[in-house]
Amino acid sequence: MYLLLLQARNGGIKIKHFHQFKMMLSAQLKLTLREKQAWFWGIFFPVILMVIFMVIFSGNSDEEFQSEIAIVDPNPNPASEMLFTQISGLPVFDVKTGTPVSREKAEEWVKGQEVDAAIILPESADASSVLLIVNKEDEQGAAVQAVSGILDKFVQQANLFAAGAEPSFELQYKSVSSGSNELDYTDFLLTGMIALSIAQGGMFGMVDLVEMRRKGLIKRLRMTPANMGIFGLSDMVMRLLFSIIQIILLSLIGVLIFGANLYISPISLVVVFLMGALSFNALGYFFSSFSKTTEAYMGVANIVSFLMMFLSGVFFPVETMPEWLQPVSNVLPLTYFADGLRESMVYETSVISGTLWFGIGVMVIWGTITFILGSWLYKRKAIVADR
Questions:
Q1: Is pLDDT above 60 for 386?
Q2: Which one of 153, 342, 364, 373 is most buried, by most CB atoms within 10 A?
Q3: pTM, two decimal places
Q4: How many CA atoms lie within 13 A of 25 on its CB side?
Q5: Where in the cell is it found (predicted)?
Q6: pLDDT grade for 169, boundaries at 50, 70 and 90
Q7: CB 370 within 8 A of CB 282
Q8: Using CA atoms, how far apart are residues 369 and 358, in angstroms rounded to an integer?
Q9: Which run of H or E residues covers position 95?
Q10: Whole-number Å distance between alpha carbons of 86 and 50
Q11: DSSP string of 68-91, one letter each residue
């Protein structure tokens, strides 16, 4: 009989808690929908941000390289004419005007950055030097470096041919991927921007708690029968709903406008998305626990967001960073969130992947620690206020 009463009591508590959760979630949604700024910062701002960065960074990354050059033939001879024909025939070079020009005109074009470089052919059949003229301001640029490397290889092959040596070896190129699908830079950038948008939504989304505490609303809420844990849970679920809208909207824009390719593993994506979104919501909850004003909260969130934006592999792989920075990147939660989204949205990585779960584990650790710290700070401040 006692067990039946206990079960009935527990069932009543669960129903009561569920009813509170529904009421609080409904209230959170209504408050958010009334706030036009919330829609902008939660939905439209991530879209604008992603479009800007996709236009800037994805640009011409998949197009073939071609450099415009000028060629000077100071004293036409059989050797220089042969070199001109071979160099102008290279598909990576676009010879301005299509014919040799004077050295003065070529140097004028280089100084004015109208061409990437000028090539001066040998002045006689006995001469052996080919001169490359570049603009000093562009000397370390990618185009100049590419022209220099291509021309150097061309000269080496010409030397082998002149010596009568037959090439014995050739370089072949092949790229491999850890996943079953190829990852283009557009796909890499899209998944990174989705991770960044969801992370920012979590980190900036808890600012309303600071305002509520400043106005004394949280203190009043504690004086009611409302469960503060359920209140926090309803806020996090509302943020999750925003994140779902974000990931769907950003994915559609990336695929339909920028031509990204997505090969989604549904179970892996759901797990990574939930763990990542909850972890960054917990991070925002932690920021709100010690921020006394909205300005202080936004300042902390901006600093953390800015650091993770450029150190977490959103725009370029972590492996391309300086070695002394990589250990910092390897402990940031956004690094593993971005990698997890790429694994589940491009590579179709199975949910049983060890690498995937390692990243999820790091995010869970971040979320758990920050949520516990935030809860402790809220409780500590409540006790101090009661005194």
A1: no
A2: 342
A3: 0.66
A4: 16
A5: Cell membrane; Membrane
A6: very low
A7: yes
A8: 17
A9: strand 93-95
A10: 43
A11: EEEEE-SS--HHHHHHHHHHHT-T
**Cβ–Cβ < 8 Å for 146, 93:** no
| Tens-digit pLDDT profile for residues 213-226 | 777 776 776 666 66
Q: What is the pLDDT of residue 137?
A: 72
pLDDT grade, residue 273 (50/70/90)?
very high
Nearest alpha-carbon partner for 245 in 32, 7, 6: 32
The SS3 of residue 94 is: strand
Instruction: Note the pLDDT of residue 174.
Output: 45
Contact (Cβ atoms closer than 8 angstroms) between residue 121 and residue 84:
yes
* Cβ-Cβ contacts under 8 Å for 381 (sequence gap 6 or more): 289
Question: How large is the average pLDDT for residues 2-13?
Answer: 42
Q: Which amino acid is at 3?
A: L
Place of tokens 């000269």: 155
Pairing of β 93-95 and β 117-120: unpaired
Distances (CA, A) of 265 to 20, 179, 274, 346: 35, 12, 14, 8
Q: Which tokens go with 269?
A: 């994506």
Chain-wide mean pLDDT for the chain? Answer: 76
DSSP-derived secondary structure for 124-139 = SSS----EEEE-GGGT
Q: Provide the b/e sequence for 37-65 (b: ≥16 CB within 10 Å).
A: ebeebbbebbeebbbebbeebbeeeeeee
3-class DSSP assignment, residue 64: coil
Question: By C-alpha distance, which of 117, 111, 179, 177 is closest to 148?
Answer: 117
Using CA atoms of 235, 236, 240, 243 in order, give the dihedral in degrees to the nearest 10: 90
Dump pLDDT digits (tens) for 25-47: 676 666 666 666 556 666 677 77
